[in-house]
Amino acid sequence: MDSQLNPSKRRKISVRHRCVACYKMFNRREHLVEHMKISYHSLHQPRCGVCLKHCKSFESVREHLNVPDHLSKGNCKAIFTKRGCTLCLQIFEEAFALAEHKNKCHLSPPRPLGTSTQRNPSSSLAGSRLKAMALDCEMVGGGADGTIDQCASVCLVDDDENVIFSTHVQPLLPVTDYRHEITGLTKEDLKDGMPLEHVRERVFSFLCGGQNDGAGRLLLVGHDLRHDMSCLKLEYPSHLLR
């Protein structure tokens, strides 16, 4: 009754705001709005098959589904343990459907990155029907505080998941942060890296189908491609980026 008579004494209720994509919570609405502006959530992001939470990568989905029991907040881990494929992370309603899927779900192990994997663009793509390639770059840090992104490794994969080109790259500036926890790279890995200019020429040659006319022919697929292309100092038609 006193709280009704004295509004100033009412207990203040904290209203939190949740991102509908990644479920992150914010105390203030403007913080949520800022998060939505910079997070770039999209329908193409990997999602948990149980709660549909958006994640930045499939590894993030895997961590979400295998979180330690004392940190688990939902039933995603329990459901995934019973009805999930540990390779592609799909969830199935029935056990027989999961068993049938596991008989078909096989991926070849990735090729070690220890040494450069290089092919001749014209001979590799001659007579092929390639429509797309996927690009991934690993960045190390330069500058006094290690915040300047520098390309340190490049990998190109065709649409059959074959590694077409893979090499370490010599950074243009001294490396002050190898970001080993993320990149797995060390000083030893980069000492025999390929010069950035040569890497750029090779990548562009593959994307042009081995031709020397400078015209892009293949779709280029990747995560945050514009950033990777910027670090490679490579320009490519925007309508061919995915």
TrEMBL record:
- Pfam families given in the database record: RNase_T
Gene3D superfamilies per record: Ribonuclease H-like superfamily/Ribonuclease H
Checking InterPro entries in the record gives: REXO1/3/4-like, Ribonucl_H, RNaseH-like_sf, RNaseH_sf, Znf_C2H2_type
Q: Which UniProt keywords apply?
A: Exonuclease, Hydrolase, Metal-binding, Nuclease, Zinc, Zinc-finger
Query: A Gene Ontology MF term for this entry?
Result: zinc ion binding
Which SUPFAM superfamilies does the UniProt record give?
Ribonuclease H-like (SSF53098)
Protein name, per record? Exonuclease family protein
Which species does this protein come from?
Arabidopsis thaliana (Mouse-ear cress)
